[in-house]
Amino acid sequence: MIGEYDASAAELVAMRNAWRDLAVRWKLTWQERRELLPEEGEDGLALPIDTEARMRILIEIGYRLRFEDDGEMCDWLRAPSRMWHWYSPIEVMSGEIGDLRQFRRRVEQGLCS
Questions:
Q1: What pLDDT does 31 receive?
Q2: Which pTM was predicted?
C-alpha cells in the first residue's frame, strides 16, 4: 500500500516537472497556463481528473511537436491557422478536452509541425 502511494506520488511529481518544463519551452504566460489547465491549474495538492488528463495530453503533444528551434515553435503556437478555423494552436488546446484530444491526433498524424 505504501509502495503504491510512493509510486503515485513520484509519478505526479514527474508529470508536474514535465509540465513545468513544457511551459518554459513553450514560453507560456500565466494566463495561457491557466487556460490550458483551467480546473485548479497545476498547483492543486491533488489534481482533478480533467486537469491530470489535460496535463498528460499536453505533455505528449510537447514531446511530439518537431520544429527546427523553439522560437519557431512558440510563434507557431500563437499564430491563427486555417486548419483550426483561424484559432491559434494554444487557443484550440485551451478548449474542451475533446478539442485537445483532436489536436493530439493531428500531431500524431504529423499534420501540425
A1: 93
A2: 0.87
